[in-house]
Structures are given as C-alpha cells and as structure tokens.
Amino acid sequence: MKALEFIDFEDFRKIKGAQLPVGDWYTITQEMINDFANATLDKQWIHVDEKRAAKESPFRSTVAHGFMSVAMISKLLEEAFTIKSVKMGLNYGLNKVRFPNPVPVNSQLRMITVVKEIEEIANNGIKVTFSCTIEIKRQDKPACVAEFIAALFE
C-alpha cells in the first residue's frame, strides 16, 4: 500500500468523505496477544492459554482482545496517510465501537478507513473523525468497526 501524502491541513481537507488507501494485512500472533494481555492485565484464558482454548473454546484457539484491534488503529492510520505540516497528533477518542467477530490467533487483519469529518480546534489544530473497519482475511464480518477521532496540530 502506498500512503497518501498531504502538504498541510488545507490539502488534507480535500479528502473529507473519501476512503484512505486500504492497509496491508497484519498477522496477529500469540506473542502479540500475550504482550497486549501483559500490558492491560487482561489475562483471561481465552486470550493466553493455548491448550485450554484448543479444548474449551468454540474457536479452538486463543483469540485476540477486542481492544487490541482498537489499539492498532493509530498505527494503521499512520501507514495510510501523512500530513507533512503536522507537528503532533493525539488520540482524541472513539465513537460507536463494536467487535462483530472474534480474531483467532494467526488471523490476518487490515483496515479500511474513510475520513468522515474534519473540524477546526484550538492551537492550530484539527479534529478528524475516521470511520474504521478492521477486516479479517477470509471472513464476512469484521473484527472491529469504530469511529476513531484524532487531534492533529501544525
């Protein structure tokens, strides 16, 4: 995937309502799931106990945390576009987050994103709302659907 490149906010505003480039596929490994479990202290067996999950889970494997897919949104957006004039970006929040489908270990994910809204904010910034859908390769339902909001500053 080739990321889109914008000169400044004025240039970026032209993409409002349009889709960003579709992201590359990322394999969700057990190591990534374990690292997320350790970072969040959410060590529920369905995420980290491979033997038990193989026997007791309806998915026959461990599954990633739903919030792990949300946590990946910032990185996946970074790879979809850049604005040369941006000095700093912050996660602002989320709207309408849903996890329609579990993510079994070794699944591949990618993100489809539309720039939904761009608003002016203080300190030479904009607040951008992205409609994000994190797909699972060879699955009809996505792993995550969310509106992600970022604050960007020039």
CATH class: Alpha Beta
> If classified by CATH, what would the architecture be?
Roll
CATH superfamily: Hotdog Thioesterase
C-alpha-based Rg, rounded: 17 Å
Apparent shape: elongated
Strand order within the widest beta sheet: 2-5-6-7-4
CATH topology: Thiol Ester Dehydrase, Chain A
Share of residues in helices: 25-40%
End-to-end separation in angstroms reads: 26 Å
Order of helices and strands: EHEHHHHEEEEE
Q: What summary fits the major beta sheet?
A: 5 strands, antiparallel
Number of domains: 1
Structural class: alpha+beta
| Beta-strand proportion | 35-45%
Number of strands: 7
How would you explain this protein's 3D organization?
Helix content is 27%, strand content 36%. It is α+β, with helices and mostly antiparallel strands and 154 residues long. Strand 6 (125-136) and strand 7 form a beta hairpin. The model has no long low-confidence stretch (mean pLDDT 96). The protein has five helices and seven strands, in the order βαβααααβββββ.
